[in-house]
């Protein structure tokens, strides 16, 4: 109750049976043994935050600062993206402890728990304005259930700010300059000339950073010494040799919004690399090593949280768009326990309120993406005008579209390009869930930290419950057990917040 009355943003405690540890890593790319990058790219390090189960000692420091150092610059970056006026930014930055006191409820640099069985691994890609800390609620929740999570910080200009260490002063982040800081890159969210090319450039960086993060985890898991520029001691939070399950197909790949786009392109780029024709544009800055290729299979767990559609339609990567997700090649055997390994979790606003969202998810999950007609902005606005309000649209449009699709299938099954029986067969590799009374940022820490503000503008309810439900979906996709507490899937007034759509 006190957390709701506090004027300072806070994050909820995790519900699992493990304590959670967290450590920041920033590793020079030169130490990872990867191929040289093109000369026009200035990437020098890869940065990520780990969340993991821990047996923290009493001496371990509890509470990881959510706002990175230098905090004033990071706070100003967020306020600029929120389009706050200079006078308002000055007022907010003058409030003592505002966001600066917000702590991730984890033990900083505590040692990972030792276990007879290797820990399952999740590698996470954030969306626009995100960074390695902005999805700590979901990833910390997973860690409390025994999952080892690595949250990548992308240096493609999609975040509010990212500071690059140069190795001269370990642990402390340098002052932001044109060399050490990567600020937000203003790229239109609409289809305009040059947008596809700019998003492709960002995706190239993002895919490489996922590759570098996986390589770093491999080296750490093998017991190799890797210099961490974010640590003042070489063995801080040393990962025990063989502590991670990096067997083929074992790693779970997850992403939110633009991060979902990133994972779709990452999976397809690697899975179909051997089928790429010479004139097909590649998003991979270098070939994936064999161990990474072995990870990307039809049964690799893939979690898409509100995946963003626009970058997938780039004219340069049309060949990827036309390819189905790898899960469709699983021959009807999605996993040993029969559960789908590719899972989509959509917040209600995203599922029913954004342009194209009614039709882009089917295009992403289809066996033949080219057969799915995507709703245009003009069609969306024409449809939206039929309803009294945004909330009326949210409540009624999904039912109307579902009924229209059913009517079309009954009149002429060829309209959908397949029979109802075939639809059921094709849906097996994929599960899809909707979170009611939620908005697009509910998947991030912002929905929890600013719950009253988000509720006022969007009607979001029970964001902590949404975090727990999303974690449950990820655990299910990875074939991991979760606490089967029915109360967690119930929203206000006994309504089910988590609805299985597929």
UniProtKB/TrEMBL annotation:
GO annotation terms (biological process): lipid catabolic process
Catalytic activity: a 1-O-alkyl-2-acetyl-sn-glycero-3-phosphocholine + H2O = a 1-O-alkyl-sn-glycero-3-phosphocholine + acetate + H(+)
Record bears the keyword Hydrolase: yes
A Pfam family that the UniProt record links to this protein: PAF-AH_p_II
Gene3D superfamilies: alpha/beta hydrolase
UniProt keyword annotation of Lipoprotein present: no
MF GO annotations: 1-alkyl-2-acetylglycerophosphocholine esterase activity
Superkingdom assignment: Eukaryota
EC number(s) given by UniProt: 3.1.1.47
InterPro entries linked: AB_hydrolase_fold (IPR029058), PAF_acetylhydro_eukaryote (IPR016715)
Entry's family note: Belongs to the serine esterase family.
Name of the protein described by the UniProt record: Putative phospholipase
Organism listed in the record: Exophiala viscosa
Lineage per the UniProt record: Eukaryota, Fungi, Dikarya, Ascomycota, Pezizomycotina
